[in-house]
């Protein structure tokens, strides 16, 4: 019997084979690790949610369909990605209403209602305006609403090893022109990671901004057998390559 996730994924099967789309989202490559969090949210009656930095929106709509959302606000500064989302992806979704916002989410998102869930899948590390984002998330969320984030972990086992060997952590770039000081296996592609946190720091940051931590999980995709083994050994949010945090607004 086909599971709910299988039936949702089937709608986007061809797009999930398009590396130009899937390659833009690390979380899509590790989606199985997100499922327990989405299972939790599916029982919360969430009907309206907002995705900050949605990119092509493929993960946005997989999440929306899985948890039974009726209305989605998709926010991104890249008009070309929003256009592809609008033309190729949204029509496959069961979501009744989609609001596309070509907007820099460092600035307040002006909508006329509150939402029950805000997500950020690999977008916060591309901006430095976290205080502004958290303030806006607090303003747009209903009391008791949820904030779901996936992001690189500054304290990951990979970054700790890099620092021990004198290299710059790959997840924190110092220039928009070139990678400096990173270990040779990473190549030379700049991807715009300008701000990251350890799991401990990010957890404390959310709590100081009126949230309680509901679920925290490691996040990593499957690579070589050796990397997979190391990921399993260090499979905690504090040490994993990335982490997922689900937080609830309590004030």
The description of the largest β-sheet is: 7 strands, mixed
The DSSP helix count reads 10
Helix content range of the residues, please?
A: 25-40%
- DSSP E strands, number: 7
Which structural class do you get from the secondary structure elements? alpha/beta
Tell me the strand order in the biggest sheet: 3-2-1-4-5-7-6
Radius of gyration: 18 Å
Mean pLDDT across the residues is 92
Give the overall silhouette.
globular
Would you identify the regions where 5 or more consecutive residues have pLDDT less than 50? none
In whole angstroms, the N-to-C terminal distance is 42 Å
**Beta-strand content:** 15-25%
What features would you describe in this structure?
Helix content is 33%, strand content 21%. The protein has helices at residues 4-11, 19-22, 26-29, 35-42, 58-67, 79-89, 130-140, 157-164, 199-208, 225-233, and strands at residues 48-52, 71-76, 97-102, 115-121, 141-152, 211-219, 242-249. A seven-stranded mixed β-sheet has the order 3-2-1-4-5-7-6, with helices on both faces.
Summarize the structure.
This protein has ten helices and seven strands. It is α/β, with parallel strands linked by helices.
Helix and strand arrangement:
Layout lengths: L3 H8 L7 H4 L3 H4 L5 H8 L5 E5 L5 H10 L3 E6 L2 H11 L7 E6 L12 E7 L8 H11 E12 L4 H8 L34 H10 L2 E9 L5 H9 L8 E8 L2
Parallel strand pairs: 1-2, 1-4, 2-3, 4-5
Antiparallel strand pairs: 5-7, 6-7
What labels describe this entry?
single chain; about 250 residues; alpha/beta; seven-stranded mixed β-sheet; 10 helices; 7 strands
